[in-house]
């Protein structure tokens, strides 16, 4: 994430560039601030309330209308690019991003979209939610905050969040009990809070020597990948790498690969009509029976049952 605090229009897109008075200025990785805009709630028992939720679908040529709303809005699970200006900050919201639109602040599209767009949205109220600029060293945004949400992030594990938002959207579509909906919303907020604390903690310390290994595994997990291949790439002894990785992350490299593959499989089961067999192949399993065995071991249910559980949606296009 990157935002500018100087006067003018700010631009956030992939954490690499922003505009001030029409000029593009590159930001080098070592110049990025560890500060991020956060929303926090210090109530010991916060009571978020879901107002509405759904999935938006837009065609090329659509542009977000100018709006001011009275609730918070979460935008996530994006397919395509959403050009959105909130106040003076312009965002190109794309896949893997998480965005909060605060209440009583004008937001609008700053250009039409050029490709199909789809995203999930949730309007909710939480009176104690307050904006702050913070870091992992700031006690206000750490231990004392029961809810801690980034205004914008490209670094959350969205697959974990998607599992919960899928359930929320399904129950909303079925006109489920408001208390149940509020409880699922709270689960979404607590999941984001947990991940945000972890991100702030990482930003407040030097990255561990094995973090690049973990990032490399995440990027390549769906292809043919092995401990030997990883060790060779990073010039590690295989036994040393395996031992140190487990000590650092509490998980073996094989388990890490499986975790990334299962998160990808969950998304594909919900977001596509691909067969279970083809999804297994996409996430790295040539043997579909073995894929189904691993999936059930990981989630407790079969891929087919997982897909049926999260099949309903409320779609809108305006």
From TrEMBL:
Name of this protein: AraC family transcriptional regulator
Keyword presence, Lipoprotein: no
A Pfam family it matches: AraC_binding
Keyword Transcription in record: yes
Gene Ontology molecular function: DNA-binding transcription factor activity; sequence-specific DNA binding
Domain HTH araC/xylS-type: 211-309
SMART domains: HTH_ARAC
InterPro entries per UniProt: AraC-bd (IPR003313), Homeodomain-like_sf (IPR009057), HTH-like (IPR037923), HTH_AraC (IPR018060), HTH_AraC-typ_CS (IPR018062)
Top-level division of the source organism's lineage: Bacteria
Keywords assigned by UniProt, alphabetized: DNA-binding, Transcription, Transcription regulation
Coiled coil: none
Organism the protein comes from: Bifidobacterium asteroides
